[in-house]
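Bug #77: duplicate submission created two jobs. Keeping one. Sequence:
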Amino acid sequence: MDYRKTIQSSIDYIEENLKEDLTIEKIAENTSFSPYHFYRLFHAYVGMPVMQYVRRRRLLHAIYALAKQETRIIDIALEYGFETHSGFSKAFSREFGCSPSQYISNISDKTPKKIDLMLHKKYNLRNGIVMEPKIVTKPAFKVAGYKFETSHESGRNVREIPAFWERFELENWEGLLYEEIKPTMLGEYAVCFPPNMATGEFQYLLGVNGDNYKKASSEIYVAEIPEATYAIFTTPPAADNDRAFAKAILGTWDYILYEWFPGSGYEIASNKPDFEYYDERCHDPEFSVMDIYIPIVKVKKDELHE
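Kept job's structure:
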Protein backbone atom coordinates (compact mmCIF):
# COMPACT_ATOMS: atom_id res chain seq x y z
CA MET A 1 0.00 0.00 0.00
CA ASP A 2 1.24 3.48 -0.85
CA TYR A 3 0.84 5.29 2.47
CA ARG A 4 1.70 8.63 0.91
CA LYS A 5 -1.24 8.43 -1.52
CA THR A 6 -3.59 7.32 1.25
CA ILE A 7 -2.63 10.22 3.51
CA GLN A 8 -2.93 12.58 0.53
CA SER A 9 -6.50 11.33 -0.08
CA SER A 10 -7.34 12.11 3.56
CA ILE A 11 -5.89 15.61 3.10
CA ASP A 12 -8.12 16.07 0.05
CA TYR A 13 -11.13 14.84 2.04
CA ILE A 14 -10.42 17.31 4.84
CA GLU A 15 -10.13 20.15 2.34
CA GLU A 16 -13.51 19.32 0.81
CA ASN A 17 -15.27 19.04 4.18
CA LEU A 18 -13.81 21.82 6.31
CA LYS A 19 -17.26 23.17 7.17
CA GLU A 20 -18.50 19.76 8.31
CA ASP A 21 -18.17 18.10 11.72
CA LEU A 22 -14.81 16.40 11.21
CA THR A 23 -13.37 13.90 13.68
CA ILE A 24 -10.38 11.59 13.47
CA GLU A 25 -12.76 8.64 13.26
CA LYS A 26 -14.70 10.14 10.37
CA ILE A 27 -11.55 11.07 8.43
CA ALA A 28 -10.02 7.63 9.05
CA GLU A 29 -13.13 5.98 7.57
CA ASN A 30 -11.87 7.09 4.15
CA THR A 31 -8.71 5.03 4.64
CA SER A 32 -8.20 1.38 5.50
CA PHE A 33 -6.58 2.29 8.83
CA SER A 34 -7.80 2.26 12.40
CA PRO A 35 -8.17 5.78 13.84
CA TYR A 36 -5.03 5.36 15.99
CA HIS A 37 -2.86 4.03 13.16
CA PHE A 38 -4.16 6.82 10.93
CA TYR A 39 -3.38 9.40 13.63
CA ARG A 40 0.22 8.21 13.89
CA LEU A 41 0.72 8.05 10.11
CA PHE A 42 -0.82 11.48 9.50
CA HIS A 43 1.44 13.02 12.13
CA ALA A 44 4.49 11.35 10.58
CA TYR A 45 3.73 12.43 7.01
CA VAL A 46 2.27 15.89 7.62
CA GLY A 47 4.32 16.98 10.62
CA MET A 48 1.41 17.79 12.97
CA PRO A 49 -1.58 15.99 14.53
CA VAL A 50 -4.57 15.61 12.26
CA MET A 51 -6.96 17.80 14.26
CA GLN A 52 -4.38 20.58 14.49
CA TYR A 53 -4.12 20.39 10.70
CA VAL A 54 -7.93 20.61 10.41
CA ARG A 55 -8.00 23.62 12.73
CA ARG A 56 -5.18 25.30 10.82
CA ARG A 57 -6.93 24.82 7.47
CA ARG A 58 -10.22 26.16 8.86
CA LEU A 59 -8.47 29.23 10.24
CA LEU A 60 -6.71 29.88 6.93
CA HIS A 61 -9.86 29.50 4.83
CA ALA A 62 -11.79 31.70 7.24
CA ILE A 63 -9.19 34.47 7.13
CA TYR A 64 -9.03 34.37 3.33
CA ALA A 65 -12.84 34.53 3.18
CA LEU A 66 -12.75 37.60 5.42
CA ALA A 67 -10.14 39.24 3.21
CA LYS A 68 -12.23 38.77 0.07
CA GLN A 69 -15.64 40.01 1.20
CA GLU A 70 -17.37 42.38 3.56
CA THR A 71 -18.66 39.79 6.00
CA ARG A 72 -18.80 39.95 9.77
CA ILE A 73 -16.03 37.98 11.41
CA ILE A 74 -18.54 36.16 13.63
CA ASP A 75 -20.39 34.86 10.56
CA ILE A 76 -17.21 33.45 9.04
CA ALA A 77 -16.09 32.09 12.42
CA LEU A 78 -19.38 30.22 12.88
CA GLU A 79 -19.21 28.89 9.32
CA TYR A 80 -15.84 27.28 10.08
CA GLY A 81 -16.78 25.88 13.49
CA PHE A 82 -15.71 28.62 15.92
CA GLU A 83 -18.44 29.59 18.36
CA THR A 84 -17.38 33.18 19.16
CA HIS A 85 -15.49 36.06 17.63
CA SER A 86 -12.97 36.03 20.50
CA GLY A 87 -12.56 32.25 20.28
CA PHE A 88 -11.69 32.54 16.60
CA SER A 89 -9.25 35.40 17.22
CA LYS A 90 -7.49 33.60 20.08
CA ALA A 91 -7.21 30.36 18.08
CA PHE A 92 -5.80 32.28 15.12
CA SER A 93 -3.24 34.14 17.24
CA ARG A 94 -2.08 30.90 18.87
CA GLU A 95 -1.65 29.18 15.51
CA PHE A 96 -0.12 32.01 13.45
CA GLY A 97 1.49 34.32 15.98
CA CYS A 98 -0.49 37.43 15.03
CA SER A 99 -4.04 38.75 15.05
CA PRO A 100 -6.46 38.07 12.16
CA SER A 101 -6.35 41.75 11.13
CA GLN A 102 -2.54 41.73 11.02
CA TYR A 103 -2.56 38.62 8.87
CA ILE A 104 -5.21 39.99 6.49
CA SER A 105 -3.11 43.10 5.87
CA ASN A 106 -0.34 40.92 4.43
CA ILE A 107 -2.05 38.16 2.47
CA SER A 108 -2.67 37.99 -1.25
CA ASP A 109 -6.05 37.12 -2.75
CA LYS A 110 -4.93 33.56 -3.51
CA THR A 111 -6.71 30.57 -1.99
CA PRO A 112 -4.47 28.96 0.66
CA LYS A 113 -2.62 25.95 -0.72
CA LYS A 114 -3.28 22.57 0.79
CA ILE A 115 -0.44 20.24 1.58
CA ASP A 116 0.88 18.18 -1.33
CA LEU A 117 2.89 15.14 -0.27
CA MET A 118 4.22 14.60 -3.79
CA LEU A 119 6.10 17.88 -3.47
CA HIS A 120 7.69 16.62 -0.26
CA LYS A 121 8.93 13.58 -2.11
CA LYS A 122 10.20 15.80 -4.92
CA TYR A 123 12.22 17.94 -2.54
CA ASN A 124 13.47 15.03 -0.45
CA LEU A 125 11.47 16.04 2.62
CA ARG A 126 11.00 12.98 4.78
CA ASN A 127 8.00 14.34 6.66
CA GLY A 128 5.30 16.90 5.95
CA ILE A 129 5.59 20.65 5.81
CA VAL A 130 2.73 23.10 6.15
CA MET A 131 2.64 24.81 2.79
CA GLU A 132 1.15 28.10 4.01
CA PRO A 133 3.76 30.01 6.04
CA LYS A 134 3.04 32.41 8.83
CA ILE A 135 3.00 36.02 7.56
CA VAL A 136 4.29 38.26 10.34
CA THR A 137 5.59 41.82 10.54
CA LYS A 138 8.58 41.80 12.89
CA PRO A 139 10.01 45.03 14.33
CA ALA A 140 13.69 45.85 14.00
CA PHE A 141 16.07 43.97 16.28
CA LYS A 142 19.79 43.37 16.67
CA VAL A 143 21.91 40.26 16.16
CA ALA A 144 25.39 40.05 17.69
CA GLY A 145 27.82 37.39 16.56
CA TYR A 146 30.52 36.31 14.14
CA LYS A 147 30.39 37.23 10.46
CA PHE A 148 32.34 36.57 7.31
CA GLU A 149 32.09 37.46 3.63
CA THR A 150 31.44 34.93 0.91
CA SER A 151 29.98 34.92 -2.60
CA HIS A 152 27.44 33.16 -4.78
CA GLU A 153 30.07 33.17 -7.55
CA SER A 154 31.39 29.68 -8.34
CA GLY A 155 29.36 28.27 -5.45
CA ARG A 156 31.76 29.63 -2.84
CA ASN A 157 28.95 30.01 -0.29
CA VAL A 158 28.02 26.32 -0.63
CA ARG A 159 31.54 25.39 0.51
CA GLU A 160 32.31 28.20 2.91
CA ILE A 161 29.12 28.46 4.98
CA PRO A 162 29.24 24.81 6.20
CA ALA A 163 32.93 25.35 7.07
CA PHE A 164 31.96 28.48 9.02
CA TRP A 165 29.31 26.50 10.92
CA GLU A 166 31.93 23.86 11.71
CA ARG A 167 34.21 26.50 13.24
CA PHE A 168 31.22 27.90 15.15
CA GLU A 169 30.71 24.50 16.77
CA LEU A 170 34.31 23.33 17.19
CA GLU A 171 35.51 26.59 18.74
CA ASN A 172 32.39 26.93 20.93
CA TRP A 173 31.46 30.33 19.54
CA GLU A 174 27.89 29.76 20.70
CA GLY A 175 28.99 29.39 24.33
CA LEU A 176 31.25 32.43 24.06
CA LEU A 177 28.40 34.53 22.65
CA TYR A 178 25.97 33.58 25.41
CA GLU A 179 28.63 34.25 28.04
CA GLU A 180 29.51 37.72 26.76
CA ILE A 181 26.21 38.97 25.34
CA LYS A 182 23.81 37.36 27.83
CA PRO A 183 20.79 37.59 25.50
CA THR A 184 17.37 37.76 27.14
CA MET A 185 16.07 35.03 24.83
CA LEU A 186 17.61 31.74 23.73
CA GLY A 187 18.02 31.02 20.04
CA GLU A 188 20.62 31.46 17.30
CA TYR A 189 20.35 33.39 14.04
CA ALA A 190 22.03 32.63 10.72
CA VAL A 191 21.64 35.85 8.74
CA CYS A 192 22.24 36.31 4.99
CA PHE A 193 22.58 39.97 4.08
CA PRO A 194 21.58 41.17 0.59
CA PRO A 195 24.29 40.43 -1.98
CA ASN A 196 26.13 42.73 -4.31
CA MET A 197 24.33 41.69 -7.48
CA ALA A 198 27.32 42.53 -9.67
CA THR A 199 29.83 40.38 -7.78
CA GLY A 200 27.62 37.94 -5.85
CA GLU A 201 29.40 38.84 -2.60
CA PHE A 202 27.42 38.95 0.63
CA GLN A 203 27.91 38.87 4.40
CA TYR A 204 26.84 35.95 6.58
CA LEU A 205 26.36 36.29 10.34
CA LEU A 206 25.97 33.64 13.04
CA GLY A 207 24.79 35.12 16.31
CA VAL A 208 22.25 35.65 19.07
CA ASN A 209 19.83 38.42 19.96
CA GLY A 210 21.86 41.55 20.68
CA ASP A 211 19.17 44.05 21.66
CA ASN A 212 20.66 44.48 25.14
CA TYR A 213 24.31 44.19 24.17
CA LYS A 214 26.02 47.51 24.85
CA LYS A 215 29.77 46.91 24.66
CA ALA A 216 30.86 45.15 21.48
CA SER A 217 34.26 43.48 21.47
CA SER A 218 36.56 43.68 18.47
CA GLU A 219 35.52 40.16 17.39
CA ILE A 220 31.77 40.45 17.80
CA TYR A 221 29.80 42.20 15.08
CA VAL A 222 26.42 43.78 15.86
CA ALA A 223 23.90 44.16 13.02
CA GLU A 224 20.49 45.77 13.09
CA ILE A 225 17.89 43.74 11.23
CA PRO A 226 15.31 46.24 9.92
CA GLU A 227 11.58 45.89 10.40
CA ALA A 228 10.08 43.68 7.72
CA THR A 229 7.13 41.52 6.83
CA TYR A 230 8.25 37.89 6.75
CA ALA A 231 6.95 34.63 5.39
CA ILE A 232 8.03 32.18 8.10
CA PHE A 233 8.46 28.54 7.10
CA THR A 234 9.04 25.76 9.63
CA THR A 235 11.04 22.81 8.35
CA PRO A 236 9.58 19.30 8.64
CA PRO A 237 10.72 17.27 11.67
CA ALA A 238 13.95 15.39 10.96
CA ALA A 239 16.48 13.35 12.89
CA ASP A 240 19.81 15.05 13.35
CA ASN A 241 21.77 12.15 11.86
CA ASP A 242 22.98 11.27 8.38
CA ARG A 243 22.47 14.99 7.64
CA ALA A 244 18.67 14.48 7.70
CA PHE A 245 18.11 17.85 9.43
CA ALA A 246 20.38 19.65 6.96
CA LYS A 247 18.59 17.97 4.04
CA ALA A 248 15.21 19.06 5.44
CA ILE A 249 16.44 22.67 5.57
CA LEU A 250 17.75 22.55 1.99
CA GLY A 251 14.54 20.89 0.78
CA THR A 252 12.45 23.57 2.45
CA TRP A 253 14.49 26.31 0.77
CA ASP A 254 13.93 24.62 -2.60
CA TYR A 255 10.19 24.40 -1.94
CA ILE A 256 10.04 28.10 -1.00
CA LEU A 257 11.86 29.30 -4.11
CA TYR A 258 10.50 26.87 -6.71
CA GLU A 259 6.96 26.14 -5.51
CA TRP A 260 5.68 28.70 -3.03
CA PHE A 261 6.83 32.00 -4.51
CA PRO A 262 5.48 31.51 -8.08
CA GLY A 263 1.85 31.45 -6.97
CA SER A 264 2.09 33.38 -3.73
CA GLY A 265 1.57 36.96 -4.91
CA TYR A 266 4.82 37.97 -3.18
CA GLU A 267 8.42 38.74 -4.03
CA ILE A 268 11.50 38.80 -1.84
CA ALA A 269 11.87 42.30 -0.37
CA SER A 270 14.88 44.25 -1.62
CA ASN A 271 17.71 45.29 0.67
CA LYS A 272 16.52 43.26 3.66
CA PRO A 273 18.28 40.17 5.02
CA ASP A 274 16.72 36.76 5.31
CA PHE A 275 17.62 34.52 8.22
CA GLU A 276 17.29 31.11 9.76
CA TYR A 277 16.30 30.83 13.42
CA TYR A 278 17.37 27.92 15.63
CA ASP A 279 15.84 27.57 19.09
CA GLU A 280 15.35 24.68 21.52
CA ARG A 281 13.24 22.82 18.91
CA CYS A 282 16.36 22.04 16.88
CA HIS A 283 17.91 20.01 19.71
CA ASP A 284 15.47 17.09 19.51
CA PRO A 285 17.51 14.12 18.23
CA GLU A 286 14.54 12.68 16.29
CA PHE A 287 12.25 15.62 15.48
CA SER A 288 14.42 18.71 15.00
CA VAL A 289 12.83 21.75 13.30
CA MET A 290 13.83 25.36 12.68
CA ASP A 291 12.32 28.47 11.07
CA ILE A 292 13.25 30.26 7.85
CA TYR A 293 12.34 33.98 7.69
CA ILE A 294 11.99 35.45 4.19
CA PRO A 295 11.31 39.22 3.92
CA ILE A 296 8.48 39.73 1.43
CA VAL A 297 6.51 42.41 -0.40
CA LYS A 298 3.25 42.05 -2.28
CA VAL A 299 3.42 42.01 -6.05
CA LYS A 300 1.12 44.53 -7.68
CA LYS A 301 -1.59 42.83 -9.72
CA ASP A 302 -0.34 44.31 -12.98
CA GLU A 303 3.15 42.96 -12.18
CA LEU A 304 2.14 39.38 -11.41
CA HIS A 305 4.17 36.84 -13.33
CA GLU A 306 2.31 34.65 -15.73
